[in-house]
Automatic annotation (TrEMBL):
Pfam short name (any one): Trans_reg_C
Listed SMART domains: Trans_reg_C
Keywords for this protein: DNA-binding, Phosphoprotein, Transcription, Transcription regulation, Two-component regulatory system
Domain OmpR/PhoB-type: 19-118
SUPFAM superfamilies: C-terminal effector domain of the bipartite response regulators
InterPro entries attached to this UniProt entry: OmpR/PhoB-type_DNA-bd, Sig_transdc_resp-reg_C-effctor, WalR-like, WH-like_DNA-bd_sf
Coiled-coil residue windows: none
DNA-binding feature ranges: 19-118
Protein name: Winged helix family transcriptional regulator
Domain of life: Bacteria
Length: 137
């Protein structure tokens, strides 16, 4: 079960009405990234990511239309290409699970690599206190 459905079920159990996600109709970003705090939010819910998962998401969000091979991601995120390239696949899978199946964060280009999903809306919050944002996609 993904996080969005789980939250909707919890709201229903608390006596609230089952309603669609406020972000489901394109009413704003699906994900917000706070680089200085190294935190990621889906709606108002903070998503707990490991250091590698966050770094992987940040790398893709910084370059939204660029396709990265596994080796390139190993160099950028892990800092060295000596780790098994399959480790990238494992971290991408975990990132997809944590962010929810309905948020197309990472797109796989078979035989090539990964990129930020074209349908994924990500907002980077440069200074959370000032409310200034930079829209990535």
């Amino acid at each position: 079960m993904d996080l969005g459905r789980f939250e909707a079920l919890l709201a229903l159990l608390d006596g609230g009405a089952l309603s669609p996600s406020p972000l489901a109709d394109g009413e704003g970003p699906r994900l917000r990234i706070h680089p200085e705090a190294r935190s990621v939010y889906r709606g108002r819910t903070e998503i707990a990511l490991t250091r590698r998962e966050y770094d992987l998401l940040w790398c893709l969000a910084e370059h939204p239309r660029q396709v990265f091979t596994r080796r390139q991601l190993l160099g950028r995120v892990w800092g060295h290409p000596y780790t098994s390239p399959r480790s990238v696949d494992v971290h991408v899978r975990r990132l997809r699970v944590k962010l929810g199946a309905d948020v197309p964060v990472v797109t796989t280009l078979r035989g090539v690599g990964y990129r930020l999903g074209a349908d994924c809306s990500v907002e980077i919050i440069r200074d959370p206190g000032a409310g200034l944002t930079e829209r990535v996609m």
